Amino acid sequence: MQQLTARDLSTEIDAGRTSLDFSKAMAPEGTTFKTFHRRKDGTSFPVEVSASPLELEGRHHVLSILRDITEQVKARERLEHFNAELEATVARRTEEIDRRNRESQAVLQSIPDLVMRLRTDATLLDLKPAKGACPLSAIARPEGENPPAPALSVVQQAVLPLGRRALKENTTIAAEVELVIDQTPVTTELRVAPVGAGEFVVFARDITERKKTEAAMVAMLEKERQVSEMKSRFISVTSHEFRTPMAAAMASADLLRNHHDKLAPGKREELSNRIVVSLQRMTQILDEVLLLNLIEAKRVEVNLTPVDLRDFAYNVIEEIRLGDRDAHRFTLDATGLANRFPADTNLLHHILGNLLSNAVRYSPLGTVIALGLDVGPDQARISVTDHGIGVPEADRSRIFESFERGSNIGTIKGTGLGLNIVKRMTDLLHGNIALESPPEGGSRFVLTLPRSQLPPVTASP
Length: 461
What we know:
alpha+beta
């Protein structure tokens, strides 16, 4: 505080304010007021005046004590300035916080997920429902003291372990869970992050459709892989199967062309037969490939007509027996009402012909090939049993797939398409085919066909 001396002070004071305040000094308790005094150099400064009445020698006086309060005024001004700056800063910070809150709310509202803030004791602090038409969008925060809806409880119980783990590890936890909301299975993606002491936030998203799409894509890729693998195997198998009969036919034809006059008649016939057999083999391969392509393209129609299965099976056996030149013995055991059974003769002929041909191909000469036929009121059961090499246990699950052949076939020719075509034709007839292993060895293929309804007969006009 600045020290004042009489030499520094002027007799001039703030007359208007001072006269008023000095009049109050006549009160018994006196008065204290602030005013300005002027120095002799013309500058003014704030002072605090304490005035009180004083009586000397019968005369009334006023005792005034002046104190320089320049530093106090400056300090107060600095404090007021600081307070003003503080209030402005608080206002700016409050406005910034409000703006960020609005931005956060806008971002939060734009998120399609169900967002929840919970405590580790499952207390729900805040909730924003999910958007869109999904089971999570129906979950809302209970009003008042009402207990949470069952769907909300399901989500809360699912996220609690994740929330506790996120708080313990102080990190974000992601997981996929299967929830049942209103009896609807919902594949849910959960992201849980700690936000404070004992509190965590949860983002829940319904990814059921996404998982279905992913599964469909995986299935499609798997199918493409299988198709690609099938094409590779097809090229490998067919090129080999074509090359062998083609080489035999070309060699036989070359011998006949260049050495026809030198060959004995029996040798000529043998070479001619070899050419015919080779061409037949190549034709069979082409027919199988073309037939498989028709089935793949769903261009094979099923035409049911009443068939006498006993006679039909006998005729197919005769065809195979003649081609086999009686190298094997065939039997037919038929029971039940075989006449007028609804069947597609083209498909059934191919199925039985393939099963009997395989039995001939993989069975030793002179063995018996048995065809069993049991026709009931609801279905027909047809079995083809041989005493051949059979199918190894490890190959049975794949024996009806394309280009699959038993690992024990050795040098026996084949493409691996026949049984796959049989299976597909059986499916077209809504039937079933299975492979059995008889106790006495060999193989038994059992075909089961339902007694389907025959199409109505249109009367002639």
